[in-house]
Design brief:
Layout lengths: L1 E5 L7 E2 L11 E2 L1 E5 L4 H7 L2 H13 L11 E5 L4 E6 L3 E8 L14 E10 L8 E8 L2 E7 L15 H13 L1 H4 L3 H9 L10 H12 L8 H20 L6 H15 L3 H22 L8 H7 L5 H5 L6 H12 L14 H5 L10 H18 L1
Antiparallel strand pairs: 1-6, 2-3, 4-10, 5-6, 5-9, 7-8, 9-10
Helix pairs in contact: 7-8, 7-14, 8-9, 9-14, 10-12
Length: 378
C-alpha cells in the first residue's frame, strides 16, 4: 500500500527528553532502535509511525492496523510532503556466507556471515530527503530514521551509502545475539582472552557467553571450542589461497601453523602463527595504502576494514569491538615478573610466554583471530 500525504509541518527529528515551554532540548535527527532497546522502541513506534497511520486515515479514509505492518518506508521532503509505503517493498541482500552456496539453493541464517548491503526495491530515497523505516525479522523489529537532509538551516545532502546503512540495521535484527552482549560480559570475555568470534557459530557463542556470565571455567566447553576451530581452519587453507591481501610467504607460514594446530602441536603452531598475525595486519596496511604510521594501535584499527566506513559499521563481525580486542588482548603488554605470562603478540615475540600457556586454548584463540581477520576483507 502506498500513500501520498501532506503534513502540517516538516518533521526534523525526535526529542531526546521531555521539556517544558521555553526549555532547551536536544533533537535526535538520525538514530536506530531495535527490539533489544525494549520500551524505547515501543515508544518510538507508537509515536511518529502512529501519527502517519492517523494521517492515512484522515487523508485517504483508510485504516491500517499497526499489528499487520511488516515493513514501512516513509520518505519526506522539505515542503511537508510524505510518501508512505506499507508492506509494499521487496528487500534483497548482498551477504558473505560461511560456506559455498549454489545458485538456486535455499540460504539459511546460519550460512550468512555478514550482510553487506540491503536494497529496497520499489522505494527510492534521495539524498536530499528524510526517511523513517520500520523493518521486521521474525518477532523482532527495528526503526531507523534520518531527518538531517530536511532539518532547518542549510540543505545537507546525505553523504553515506544507504544500502550499507540498512545492512547495519538488518545485521542488528538478524544477528541480535552479537549486539546485546553487556559491558560486564565484554570485560569478562576480554579478561579470558576470548571474543565472540564469528566462526564460533551462534550456538557455541551462546554457550561461551553463558560460561562467561556465570564465571564457569571453560574446561568443559574447551573440547567443543577446539573441535569447531579445527573444522573452520581446515576450510581456511583454501580461503587463504584466494586471499590476495597477504604475501606468499605469509600464506605458507599460516598454512604451516594450521597444520601444526591440526596435529595438536599448540606450542609450534603459536610460535609460527602469532608473529604472522601481525604480518597479516602489516600486509593489509600496505595493500590499502594507508599513510598512517605503523604502530600496533594503527594495525589493530586497519585490520577491521577496507576504510573507515567499514570499520565503524554494525556487523556481526563487530569491527569496533575487535579493534579494542586486538589492542587490549592480542597486542597486550606483559609483566616480566609474572610467573604465568599469557600468550600475546608481545609475550611470544619476546620469548617470555610460559609453555603452560601455549596450549590448545591459546592456539584456538589465535586461529579464531586469523579467521576473523580474513572475514573482514573477503
Amino acid at each position: 500500500m502506498k500513500f501520498e500525504l501532506k503534513l502540517k509541518s516538516v518533521p526534523i527529528g525526535i526529542a531526546a527528553k521531555t521539556s517544558r515551554p521555553g526549555e532547551s532540548n536536544h533533537v535526535i535527527t538520525r538514530d536506530v532502535t531495535t527490539s533489544r532497546d525494549g520500551t524505547l522502541l515501543f515508544d518510538r513506534l507508537e509515536d511518529f509511525p502512529n501519527y502517519l497511520l492517523d494521517q492515512i486515515r484522515l487523508q485517504h479514509q483508510k485504516i491500517v492496523q499497526a499489528q499487520f505492518i511488516g515493513n514501512l518506508v516513509a520518505i519526506f521532503d522539505r515542503l511537508g510532503n510524505a510518501t508512505v509505503q506499507i508492506n509494499d517493498i521487496d528487500i534483497s541482500y548482498i551477504a558473505t556466507t560461511n560456506e559455498e552456496v549454489k545458485a538456486g539453493n535455499i540460504v539459511f541464517r546460519h550460512q550468512i556471515k555478514d550482510i553487506r548491503e540491503v536494497k529496497l526495491h520499489g522505494a527510492e530515497i534521495k539524498n536530499n530527503e528524510g526517511f523513517l523505516v520500520v523493518f521486521s525479522f521474525n518477532w523482532r523489529k527495528a526503526l531507523c530514521f534520518d531527518f538531517t537532509p530536511i532539518a532547518p538551516g542549510e540543505t545537507k545532502e546525505r553523504n553515506y551509502d544507504l544500502g550499507k546503512y540498512f545492512a547495519g540495521v538488518f545485521n542488528q535484527l538478524v544477528f541480535d545475539e552479537y549486539f546485546k552482549i553487556s559491558e560486564d560480559i565484554w570485560t569478562k570475555l576480554l579478561k579470558r582472552s576470548w571474543f565472540p568470534f564469528r566462526h564460533l557459530g551462534e550456538e557455541l557463542l551462546k554457550e561461551l557467553i553463558l560460561y562467561t556470565r556465570e564465571d564457569w571455567p571453560l574446561t568443559d566447553l574447551l573440547p567443543k571450542l577446539i573441535e569447531k576451530t579445527k573444522y573452520e581452519t581446515c576450510r581456511l587453507r583454501d580461503r587463504l589461497n584466494h586471499f590476495e591481501h597477504i604475501s606468499a610467504d605469509q600464506r605458507s607460514s599460516l598454512i604451516a601453523a594450521i597444520n601444526q594446530y591440526q596435529n595438536d602441536d599448540a606450542l609450534s603452531s603459536l610460535h609460527i602463527l602469532v608473529p604472522r598475525l601481525e604480518g597479516v595486519m602489516r600486509d593489509i596496511h600496505r595493500h590499502f595504502g594507508d599513510d598512517s604510521r605503523i604502530t600496533q594501535n594503527n594495525l589493530a584499527r586497519i585490520a577491521t576494514g577496507r576504510d573507515e566506513e567499514s570499520r565503524l559499521r554494525e556487523s556481526p563481525l563487530l569491527p569496533k569491538r575487535f579493534n579494542q580486542y586486538l589492542s587490549e588482548v592480542f597486542f597486550a603488554n606483559f609483566d616480566p615478573d609474572d610467573h604465568q605470562i599469557s600468550v600475546s603478540r608481545n609475550s611470544i615475540a619476546h620469548g617470555v610466554a610460559t609453555v603452560e600457556k601455549c596450549n590448545m586454548e591459546s592456539a584456538s584463540i589465535g586461529m579464531q583471530i586469523l579467521l576473523q581477520l580474513v572475514s573482514y576483507f573477503e
